[in-house]
Write a structure and sequence with these properties.
Largest sheet: 4 strands, antiparallel
Strand content: 5-15%
Strand order of the largest sheet: 4-5-3-6
Number of helices: 9
Order of helices and strands: HHHHEEEHHHHEEHE
Radius of gyration: 20 Å
Helix content: 40-55%
């Protein structure tokens, strides 16, 4: 599809693309946007097409609801956008970009037993969501401006955690009708256990089912990862995979043959 779209307006040379690795699809990780922009950008660069990232995103119909995937592709880091006006064809406007603190680490919990909402089902689900009360919107904005952004700037993990917790509780309440509910029952069980242990900086990525846990440093992440592996085994939970990942503070990068 990407090649067909680009062929409509441009002459393309012969080329071959091999995808060596990819983000798991339909897991709430924005894989569709990253793959589309990666392939499209490579083709555009190889053929010297005068197309920037925003133009490619528009051609491939990315950024219709969120512009975060586009901004992450451009420059990485921690990004915030402001949504978009009704009827607008442009991606949501990016208002904040900052490097992710190097010491802060991330665990992803993947549930291989199910897929997150995508495609037509996702569009329909968004249409059917009840109108969100302005009080909830105001609380989300407060959490963002008073906890998350200052927490990031000052590298105050506790304040950052407060903001993430408030927004994640609101997400669960809005999507599923309950503050402690998530797409994956297995991940929900793990999160309830973490909450009992006093660990609060966890949540669901987009529609899920992938869960995330932010931790202050590598040591705590290693300890938590071992604990979760044991917990999953003792509770006979199947189909979960834990990944240790980092915050990526750069965007797209083309590496030519022979380069490190």
């Amino acid at each position: 599809k990407i090649i067909d779209i680009l062929k409509k307006e441009n002459d393309l040379s012969n080329f071959k693309i091999s995808v060596c690795d990819e983000i798991p699809a339909h897991n709430g990780l924005g894989s569709g946007t990253q793959l589309a922009l990666s392939v499209g950008y490579l083709i555009a660069e190889f053929n010297k097409l005068k197309l920037d990232i925003n133009q490619l995103a528009f051609l491939f119909r990315r950024g219709r609801r969120s512009g975060i995937g586009i901004e992450c592709f451009k420059k990485g880091g921690f990004n915030i956008d402001v949504g978009k006006l009704k009827g607008s064809i442009k991606p949501p406007l990016s208002i904040f970009n900052m490097k992710w603190p190097k010491d802060w680490k991330i665990l992803l919990i993947l549930d291989k037993n199910l897929e997150g909402l995508h495609g037509k089902k996702e569009v329909q689900e968004l249409k059917e969501l009840k109108k969100i009360h302005k009080n909830k919107t105001n609380l989300n904005c407060k959490s963002l401006l008073m906890n998350i952004i200052p927490g990031l700037i000052e590298k105050n993990f506790e304040e950052f955690t407060k903001g993430i917790r408030a927004i994640q509780d609101m997400m669960s309440e809005t999507f599923y009708g309950k503050r402690t509910k998530y797409a994956s029952i297995s991940i929900e069980k793990i999160f309830k256990n973490l909450n009992k242990k006093g660990i609060k900086c966890y949540g669901q990525s987009s529609w899920g089912p992938t869960g995330f846990v932010f931790v202050e440093n590598s040591k705590k992440r290693n300890e938590l990862s071992k604990y979760l592996e044991t917990y999953i085994s003792l509770n006979n939970i199947h189909g979960l995979k834990i990944l240790k990942v980092e915050g990526r503070n750069f965007g797209k990068k083309i590496i030519s043959k022979g380069e490190e």
